[in-house]
Design goal:
The protein is an alpha+beta fold. The chain folds into 2 domains: 20-342 and 424-509, no CATH class; 345-408, Dna Ligase, domain 1 (2-Layer Sandwich). It is built from 15 helices and 26 strands. The chain has a 5-stranded mixed beta sheet with strand order 3-22-21-18-17. Pfam families: CP_ATPgrasp_2.
Length: 510
């Protein structure tokens, strides 16, 4: 951890003054007293609390419902940075969809020994019950959250893939609304791409994968486990924003392999379900028989092609961190090219040589459960106690296949309002990528998570992290054309990037 962190506003440590394109933000920070910044930040958090924008912390009896702390200083992406990121995100999500389609179908990637067979077929996230089922329009990962970290001006890395039920988009939208209301002057100084069309983009994606086709006015719903779920606010927020029904298992019934929603006017056929229920609980006839959160017969209706489920059952295998370590090979196998967004260097502890290296360098590495999330089950070696390191050593020796390890990166920092004033804090980033029958779209923004504790690299909300608004800048009001990786892309005044040629399908990126 001896390498100085890259400051996204000021640039590399040797630079004097703000990065040229961000001088206006630096001037704004200098001209706005810390007391005023704090007043605006507290006003935003008060609004979030009044709106009920909270998340649950399981096992925490002192504060089961919390707001995620919000920081008033935005994180900024330049237009050229965003164009490059979007191209890499599209490539990666297309590879994830191809991978899921393959392993639940022909399994070419296993037959050609690109991946070890046991890594897939012996994985707890692999769902053999889904094998042979084709989702409507062959789309598996309709909504992806690809977590990115930055270590330098042009150095972006994928930290992990989220293809099950990625959360956080409601915070992206509410953060932007707060910034527009509390810091309107920033939007006159910067041309910022809008994110408020996300609910419309999501609804368009859902309708596009309906078994009946989007022209038939399909019925779409959001399936929630209920108000005790940690992301319930987001479930209700998105359903309300899209103008669709928020339902629980008891609101749905399957009859003759068709899903219906119970209403006071009678049954209504359901075509598309955006489920926020994990696979294990989705259908008690197929997965956990004790589940009260799922819909009996749902998978049969899905297999019959009568309903689309977003994201598709079985997607958890693409979230597995051991699979993540093979993503460069996966991208190469399905796209024929090298990954445009690289992985963080990763040691697979299931491999004896990798395990030996990790055990010898535990105090230098970050160690993670392959199926972990939320910052749980993770060791950050440089900040861990000797006792914590020894506990992880024992766990690694006992079950090495359950862990991967990565170097401790010098994550980039963004000025953040701390108790003593503005101070650098480490950040990561989750952009949201939507895939429907008409192609792939990248939302021009995302969720920036910030580690509020000085020196901390853990940004998860459940571990004390907060969020920032993420500005994607547009260079000017005129459309401009550029060529990237053999594809011509047009960047318009609304921040939309459209692929004009050179690829197998036409894709729009927002």
């Amino acid at each position: 951890m001896g390498t100085p962190a890259f400051d996204e506003i000021m640039g590399p440590p040797e630079r004097e003054g703000a990065r040229g394109e961000l001088v206006d933000l630096c001037h704004w920070l200098q001209a706005t007293p810390a007391e005023e910044l704090r007043r605006r930040q507290e006003a935003a958090e008060t609004t979030f609390r009044q709106l009920g924008i909270t998340f649950a912390v399981y096992g925490d009896s002192d504060a089961s419902e919390r707001i995620i702390p919000f920081d008033i200083v935005p994180r900024i992406f330049l237009a050229r940075e965003w164009a490059r990121l979007s191209e890499g995100l599209i490539q990666r999500v297309e590879a994830i969809n191809a991978f899921l389609h393959d392993i639940y179908g022909e399994r070419r990637i296993l037959k050609e020994a690109v991946l070890p067979e046991d890594l897939i077929l012996g994985n707890a996230q692999f769902r053999p019950e889904i094998a042979g089922i084709r989702p409507p329009h062959d789309v598996w990962a309709h909504i992806c959250g690809i977590d990115l970290v930055r270590t330098g001006p042009d150095d972006f890395f994928v930290l992990e893939d989220n293809a099950r039920t990625p959360s956080g988009v409601s915070y992206m939208l509410e953060n932007r609304e707060a910034m527009v209301r509390l810091c309107p002057e920033l939007f006159s100084q910067f041309r910022v791409a809008a994110v408020d069309s996300y609910p419309d983009m999501l609804l368009e994606t859902m309708r596009s994968v309906s078994p009946r086709g989007c022209g038939q006015n399909p019925t779409c719903v959001v399936l929630t486990p209920g108000h005790y779920n940690s992301a319930y606010y987001e479930h209700s927020f998105l359903a309300d924003s899209m103008g669709v029904e928020l339902v629980e298992a008891a609101d749905l019934v399957v009859d003759d392999d068709v899903v219906y929603m119970r209403t006071i006017a009678g049954r209504v056929k359901v075509d598309v379900i955006y489920r926020r229920v994990d696979d294990d609980f989705l259908d008690p006839l197929v997965f956990r028989p004790d589940s009260m959160l799922g819909v009996p017969g749902l998978i049969a209706a899905y297999a019959a092609g009568n309903v689309a489920i977003i994201n598709a059952p079985g997607n958890g295998i693409a979230d597995d961190k051991a699979i993540y370590s093979y993503m460069p090979e996966i991208v190469r196998f399905y796209s024929g090219g090298e990954a445009k967004l690289p992985n963080v260097e990763t040691w697979r502890c299931r491999e004896p040589q990798a395990l030996k290296y990790v055990l010898d360098h535990l105090d230098e590495l970050v160690v993670k459960l392959v199926d972990g999330s939320g910052g749980y089950g993770m060791l950050v070696g440089p900040t861990a106690s000797a006792a914590e390191i020894e506990r992880f050593r024992a766990a690694l020796v006992a079950e090495p296949h359950r862990y991967i390890a990565q170097p401790t990166l010098a994550l980039s920092t963004v000025p953040t309002l701390a108790d003593a004033g503005l101070a650098p804090r480490h950040v990561d980033f989750r952009p949201f990528v939507l895939t429907g029958s008409k192609g792939v779209k990248v939302v021009p923004g995302g969720l920036t998570r910030v580690a509020l504790k000085e020196g901390s690299l853990v940004v998860n909300s459940s571990q004390g992290g907060g969020t920032k608004d993420s500005f994607v800048l547009m260079d000017d009001a005129k459309a401009m054309t550029q060529t990237m990786g053999g594809m011509t892309q047009s960047i318009g005044p609304d921040g939309m990037v459209q692929t004009l040629g050179g690829a197998d399908l036409t894709r729009e990126v927002r």
